[in-house]
UniProtKB/TrEMBL annotation:
Name of the protein described by the UniProt record: GerMN domain-containing protein
Secretion signal, residue range per the UniProt entry: 1-26
Record-linked SMART domains: Germane
Keywords, in A-Z order: Signal
The keyword Cell wall biogenesis/degradation appears for this protein: no
Length: 361
């Protein structure tokens, strides 16, 4: 069965204290049992039982010929923004049995995503790409068979396309990694620039790389940070993988410091965390919650009493990318009850939202 990842990839952040923990997809899949080296061209998954969706009209249908309202579900699709970053966007898609195949089909340029693309975004897969079939193996590997048109992309887009495919499909809990075929043939490397993919890719490959000052990959580890981007009046969050010293004592503290350091000045991204913000205690972890105690620099400079919603979002999204972290408790000088700049009281740990960039926070 497919289930939506709690990280998937996100509803409204205005309700951050109530949001969160993830959206599960239930249901059974009808998949022919095959050996690991035998992948069917077409695999059908039975309808999901539990979905976050926009329900069809509940009005009584007076006639069988009357038009029916199409049910939709929110899917997290990773698309290219105007700066070329791979960015999650929540898109309402028609309800279907073949959720993974559909998600890929909506990544194709000129395909059904065209009328649904947010302003400033574009699809990631080459025009004409067909998804011949998908097959979920027992170890959580999803084998995806593309048509030959899949190889018609620019070399400089290869890594980003691989990231978009991997992150889109691993929004489903049962998908741990993704293996690519072209017309039924296993691919050990991406077809244009030769990026190794071997036995499959997972979110461990990272996204939108920013190595910062670290050049020694062997002695570093990856953290994912969420920075802000602007397109007209629309503000959205961009995940960036940055490498930090693997010997840092407290990864949570290091993550906050990287957020304060901000993105590369040339990136087109920005952060609302600034140099006056500092942790006054070492972050602690207990039962899935990281507790952070900041100085007053984190409060809104105009009000002096409120936390920026964007700052909260950047912190929560970044820290909940780390294994085992489900929520973040934010204190200021030890004070737990705080207000956001939206007037919402925060008196308990803030969980990760179900999805990022829904268009309303």
């Amino acid at each position: 069965m497919f289930k939506i990842k709690k990280t998937g990839i996100i509803a409204s952040f205005l309700a951050l204290t109530a949001l969160l923990t993830g959206c599960a997809l239930g249901g059974e899949q009808a998949v022919n049992q095959t050996k690991d080296n035998e992948f069917p061209q077409e695999v059908t998954y039975v309808e999901e039982e539990t979905l976050e969706q926009t329900p069809a009209s509940t009005d009584e249908v007076e006639s069988k010929d009357e038009a029916q309202v199409e049910e939709t579900v929110q899917r997290e699709l990773y698309l290219f923004d105007k700066n070329g970053y791979v960015v999650p966007q929540m898109i309402p898609l028609p309800k279907t049995k073949e959720v993974a195949k559909q998600a890929l089909e909506y990544l194709v340029e000129g395909g059904p995503i065209t009328e649904l693309l947010p302003n400033g975004f574009r699809a990631v897969l080459p025009p004409g790409t067909m998804v011949n079939g998908v097959n979920l193996l027992e170890d959580g590997t999803l084998v995806v068979d593309f048509s030959k048109e899949f190889a018609n992309y620019k070399a400089e887009d290869e890594l980003k396309i691989l990231q978009a495919i991997t992150y889109t499909l691993t929004q489903f809990d049962t998908v741990k990694k993704v293996k690519i075929q072209i017309n039924g043939h296993d691919q050990t490397h991406m077809p244009v620039n030769g990026t190794p993919i071997n036995q499959g890719t997972s979110r461990a490959i990272g996204i939108n790389f920013d190595n910062g000052e670290v050049v020694d990959v062997t002695n570093s580890k990856a953290v994912t940070l969420y920075f802000l981007a602007q397109n007209g009046d629309n503000t959205y969050y961009v995940p960036v993988t940055r490498r930090i010293d693997k010997n840092v004592k407290n990864t949570y503290e290091a993550t906050v410091k990287e957020l304060i350091k901000g993105p590369d000045p040339r990136s087109g991204l920005y952060t609302e965390l600034h140099d006056d913000i500092a942790l006054i205690d070492e972050p602690t972890y207990k039962n899935g919650t990281v507790t952070l105690n900041f100085n007053e620099g984190i409060l809104n400079s105009l009000e002096g009493t409120a936390l920026s919603q964007n700052i909260i979002n950047e912190i929560v999204l970044s820290l909940t990318e780390q294994d085992g972290v489900e929520s973040v408790a934010i204190k200021v000088n030890g004070k737990e009850k705080l207000l956001t700049d939206k007037g919402v009281e925060i008196s308990s740990p803030v969980s990760r939202p179900k999805s990022v960039n829904t268009g309303s926070f």
